[in-house]
Design brief:
This protein has 197 residues and is of the alpha/beta class. It is 24% helix and 17% strand. It is built from six helices and seven strands. It has a seven-stranded mixed beta sheet, with helices on one face. The radius of gyration is 16 Å and the shape is globular. The mean pLDDT is 96.
Length: 197
């Protein structure tokens, strides 16, 4: 079994505080299930938000504190990939940016042209709390996710292989805020992802 990279780049976006059953039928999530790979047994690690973001970025859990503010390895730093935090719909809250919290170097972009991204990188898609489902409605979050998918699918960068590998979108939620279990929606999408897997 190959242990090398599966994708040339990762586009990562996170919604806030909704469990799987609250969001699975959003139009953007139906698209992801049909066109991508849906992770049907995916769970956040704890509450509140911060530790879940750190666990996704670093592959391990340290503390339930909202912020760690310590330099720790992330998948991006280990792979030596440049990270861009994109102000897609507002800047993410500090506790919702694991690259800031774990002191992984990154650049920021407000008006991003996807075609200017490096061939291999991490693009962390910024959403403020009015746009990620935290304070705003799920309809707003769904519209934002659909727009992101549309922009990626129209992008030459997202559809061009690098050494045979394509970028992938990973969309998930940080935690199931008021649910009995901490199961959240998660899916990959991109030309290197088998639809329906």
């Amino acid at each position: 079994m190959s242990t090398g990279p599966r994708f040339s780049s990762l586009v990562w976006v996170v919604g806030e505080n909704h469990n799987l059953h609250e969001v699975v039928d959003l139009s953007s999530h139906r698209r992801l299930r049909e066109q991508g790979a849906f992770l049907s047994n995916y769970f956040a690690v704890t509450h509140p938000s911060g530790p879940n973001y750190r666990a996704m970025a670093a592959g391990r859990y340290w503390t339930q504190d909202e912020r760690l503010d310590q330099q720790k390895p992330t998948f991006a730093s280990q792979a030596k990939l440049p990270v861009t935090v994109w102000k897609f719909r507002g800047w993410p809250a500090r506790k919702h940016n694991p690259f800031y919290d774990l002191k992984t170097p990154y650049s920021t972009a407000e008006d991003l042209d996807l075609e200017t991204l490096p061939p291999r990188c991490v693009l962390y898609v910024g959403l403020d709390d009015d746009n990620n489902g935290h304070d705003g409605s799920l309809d707003v979050a769904d519209a934002n996710f659909n727009e992101l998918i549309d922009r990626l699918q129209a992008s030459a960068w997202f559809n061009t292989p690098v050494d045979g590998l394509y970028p992938a979108l990973f969309l998930t939620w940080d935690e199931a805020y008021r649910a009995r279990t901490n199961q959240v929606f998660a899916a990959f999408m991109g030309r290197g992802v088998k639809p329906g897997a």
